[in-house]
Design brief:
Blueprint lengths: L2 E5 L3 H13 L3 E5 L2 H10 L4 E4 L8 H8 L6 E5 L4 H9 L4 E4 L1
Parallel strand pairs: 1-2, 1-3, 3-4, 4-5
């Protein structure tokens, strides 16, 4: 089963993404802060990470720098819509950048 880590500080968004992906057959783990996300990434393997930028503890850009050497695909899902934010996320190695 494909394992997806959903990292977003808004629990309602995590729950909605989890509900939709779980109904499609994916196994989701959700966390609401950057430090917990890093801990999960250190102890489990994921096939995909959906990552918000604005997080308590460590922001999504910092987490992306940690994830990049692991080779796990990452899609930023964030409210940050400025071109500079998109460029930064993609330059850090994200596979895509989606605006909420």
């Amino acid at each position: 089963m494909i394992k997806i880590l959903v990292v977003d500080d808004e629990k309602a968004i995590c729950d909605l993404i989890d509900l939709n992906l779980s109904s499609a057959g994916y196994h989701c783990t959700t966390v609401q802060d950057g430090l917990t996300a890093i801990d999960k990434i250190e102890h489990e393997n994921y096939d995909l990470i959906l990552l918000d930028v604005m997080l308590p503890g460590a922001d999504g850009y910092d987490i992306m720098e940690y994830i990049r050497p692991l080779g796990v695909p990452v899609i930023f899902v964030t409210a940050k819509h400025a071109v500079k934010d998109r460029v930064r996320g993609l330059k850090l190695g994200a596979d895509d950048y989606l605006v909420k």
